[in-house]
Design brief:
44% of the residues lie in helices and 24% in strands. Bound molecules: S-adenosylmethionine. S-adenosylmethionine (SAM) binds next to strand 2, strand 4 and helix 4.
Length: 225
């Protein structure tokens, strides 16, 4: 099997694109392991670990590593988060799960990140929680992108070692995304605002804390798009 036979989804392709060249990568929560397999097949990454906590996805990882003939370059690891991260790893990717789970994985084994210079993160939600963790733990946001696939907006974040303080709005919307304000950004937040306005319409008590909270959120979005 070659790279030509491996078709990444739009979201995984965007994640693939931001992984730096010539690194040893650990993909945590790898499942099908398509990301590390594509990275070694193209030569973008020299070696990779595909790490899984659950037996089922781990078996899919092992199967795909064999199917694409990359067992000399990609090692399957059955492990919880970063707990067995090897010292040669300098890029960690954690994608396709909730932002709170990503933060939990990072935070429980922070010390393991000493040799890691780049994090590539793809939270499905709670992106703000991820950015707050990065800011508080010596990672600077280097790149962000919104990918629209199957009616869902995915934010991907690349962070490198460094210290930078972000404003509340930057943490919520993403410092790079907010600066660029591209079409996908406007679409994502216009959709979200319209959804919130519909929810507000169905609340009778316009003085309730719930209504006021949603109103604040709508104003925050309007101020930034
Ligand atoms: C939806 S899949 C995402 C697969 C792939 N990373 C992607 O973006 O397409 C999430 C995977 O994370 C794994 N996972 C959840 N918690 C984990 C942990 N603490 N350590 C390693 N893997 C974990 C799950 O077993 C699941 O296979």
């Amino acid at each position: 099997m070659t790279i030509d036979s491996l078709k990444l989804s739009k979201r995984l392709q965007a994640i693939y694109d931001i992984v730096p060249q010539s690194n040893v990568l650990a993909d945590i929560g790898s499942d099908h392991a398509l990301l590390p397999i594509a990275l070694v097949l193209s030569g973008k990454v020299t070696r990779a670990y595909a790490s899984e906590i659950n037996e089922g996805p781990y078996e899919a990882t092992v199967k795909n590593i064999a199917k694409y003939g990359v067992s000399n370059y990609v090692s399957a690891v059955l492990s919880d988060g970063l707990s067995n991260l090897e010292k040669d790893v300098n890029t960690v990717s954690i994608c396709g799960m909730g932002g709170s789970l990503i933060v939990d994985i990072l935070d429980r084994n922070k010390a393991k990140l000493d040799n890691v210079d780049t994090l590539v993160l793809g939270p499905n939600n709670n992106e703000e929680t991820v950015r707050i963790w990065l800011m508080n733990n010596g990672f600077e946001i280097a790149f962000e992108k919104i990918v629209e696939e199957d009616g869902h907006f995915y934010e991907i974040i690349k962070a490198c070692k460094g210290f930078k303080a972000y404003t509340r709005d930057e943490l919520f919307f993403g410092p790079v995304l907010l600066r660029e304000k591209n079409e996908a950004f406007i679409r994502k937040w216009s959709n979200q605002r319209d959804h919130l306005l519909k929810v507000m319409n169905n609340i009778n008590d316009k003085k309730s804390s719930n209504y006021c909270m949603l109103e604040l959120m709508v104003n925050l979005i309007n101020k930034n798009i």
